[in-house]
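Notes to self, Ribose ABC transporter permease:
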Amino acid sequence: MEKKSVIRKNLIESMIQYFRENAGILIGLLIMCVFMSLRSSVFLTGNNISNVLRQVTTNANLAFGMTFAIILCGIDLSVGSILAFSGTLCAGLIANSGVPVPLAVLCGILAGTLLGFINGFIIAKTQMPPFIVTLAMMQIARGAAYVYTNGMPIRVMVPEYNNIGIGYLGIIPLPVIYTGVFFVFTALLLGKTRYGKYVYAVGGNEDAARFSGINIGRVKVITYTLIGFLASVSGIVICARMYSGQPTAGDGAEMDAIAAVVLGGTSFSGGIGKIGGTLIGVFIIGVLNNGLNLLNVNSFWQLIAKGLVILLAVYIDLLKKKTKKQ
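result:
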């Protein structure tokens, strides 16, 4: 009984701390939800809430990985392209080559994970800026997706595969289950493991981390490999949901992921950030997208709105740093 009470107490304390640390963005999310519900009677319906949860899963998976990169004082611009390449490869293997679904899924995941590994290896071994390396990979992976598909969608009508993206566990969509698992996994990895401590240390001060004996290169390779894995899974899920491998899938997805991470309190200067904050940022971006669609706001204005949100989030981060220095 004492053990259970201690666990319950620790859980309550953790929740209180979580709400305290993220009070600002949680209030912002609540205000946004209230505003959208007042402007649209559809917003708080069960179907729309389910749609929002399903829609945010892709961005959440990418943003969880992006959190590691930005804490590491890096970035990954290739996640959307890796998503597209992995998804189209998996779809093509099933539809064109007759490869069994489990093997095709495995190949798609391995391909995206390999691209992430290549990003990390080049960054670690050459000291080239992550921005440049992942920008190059963004072009390479997107080009590979177009070459593989000849620029055309690959239609896949295989229930076993499509169920990955459209299936349910009870009343919960399977993509939401996957994202929940990734959230727990990445939160524990970042907050409770030696590797997670190394990510914070390298992002906070790379030279100090090197002098303390941390293998900087290994941390970077693991981080970008993890990002590639999360992007590849997202690509397979989204292509299964769309019944086709689309070479255009994930176009601009890196921007939504970066926006969610920055909104969640992760600093571009490195060394600061948590997966829990990123999750709230994901919901802010998801609610913004969904709400603007319900209000019939032109998609071009939505891009402007998200750009302003990123600018505001970075500015607030700068103000926080100035306040701490004072």
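- The chain has a mean pLDDT of 90.
- Residues 318 and 324 are 10 Å apart (CA to CA).
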